[in-house]
Design a protein that fits this description.
35% helix; eight-stranded mixed beta sheet; 2 domains; 10 strands; binds 5-O-phosphono-beta-D-ribofuranosylamine; alpha/beta; Rossmann fold; two-stranded antiparallel sheet; 220 residues; globular
Length: 220
């Protein structure tokens, strides 16, 4: 993976600014980024009915749907998506509930400036249905992770994590709500660190300049 300060220097040279956020549905994490004053240049979705698109449009942010079902292959969709992303010249591309697996080509194109939020404490529970699987496994601490995206699903270098307790009476919905509150706190912070050029990666481990805590705990 490209070293973060390196791409940062490249971004400055090439006049890339702000972020493009990719969503597929509700868009509450995208909303949190907007409300924390992150420079969102555009919101893109692979589904025209994604609720988050309306939120972005209401705030004057370009919001565009590109339906993956209109493309014959993952690669052709990803090619069109990349062309759309590049129209906004973003410094970073942020996956906020984007429910599509990216082709290796797309990951490589933005590697080092491509972040995702995942609703578990990675490396536990990669993939789908994380809250149900956490309950089934009987873990007592659960949470969310912001990480760099690499070709292997949910396996890129970890930037920031939010931990929450799992309570005896939790349902999938109550646990998901507690984790989501944590997501809304860590995602803006991690994206800000990236844009500020504070992240570096050494042997797969992310450090933040100034060494702030790379975790949060919310017991409520
Ligand atoms: C979040 O739980 C996120 O971690 C996961 O998908 C969900 C998206 O929620 N990748 P929202 O669309 O941001 O509300």
């Amino acid at each position: 993976m490209a070293d973060a300060p390196l791409w940062r220097a490249r971004a400055r040279d090439s006049q890339l600014t702000g972020i493009v956020v990719l969503i597929s549905g509700r868009g509450s994490n995208m909303r949190s980024l907007v409300e924390h004053q992150l420079p969102v240049r555009a919101v893109l979705s692979n589904r025209a009915d994604a609720a988050g698109l309306a939120f972005a449009r209401d705030r004057g942010i370009p919001a565009v749907a590109l339906d993956h079902r209109d493309f014959a292959s993952r690669e052709s969709f990803d090619q069109a998506l990349a062309e759309l992303i590049d129209r906004y010249h973003p410094e970073a591309v942020i996956l906020a509930g984007f429910m599509r697996i990216l082709s290796v080509g797309l990951v490589r194109r933005y590697e080092g400036r491509l972040l995702n939020i995942h609703p578990s404490l990675l490396p536990a529970f990669p993939g789908l249905d994380t809250h149900a699987r956490a309950l089934q496994a009987g873990v007592k601490i659960h949470g969310a992770t912001v990480h760099y995206v690499t070709p292997e699903l949910d396996a890129g270098p970890i930037i920031l994590q939010a931990a929450v307790p799992v309570r005896p009476d939790d349902t999938e919905a109550s646990l998901a709500a507690r984790v989501l509150a944590g997501e809304h706190r860590i995602f803006p912070l991690a994206v800000q660190w990236l844009l500020d050029g504070r992240l570096s990666i050494s042997e797969g481990v992310v450090r933040v300049a100034g060494d702030p805590p790379q975790w949060m705990f919310n017991a409520s």
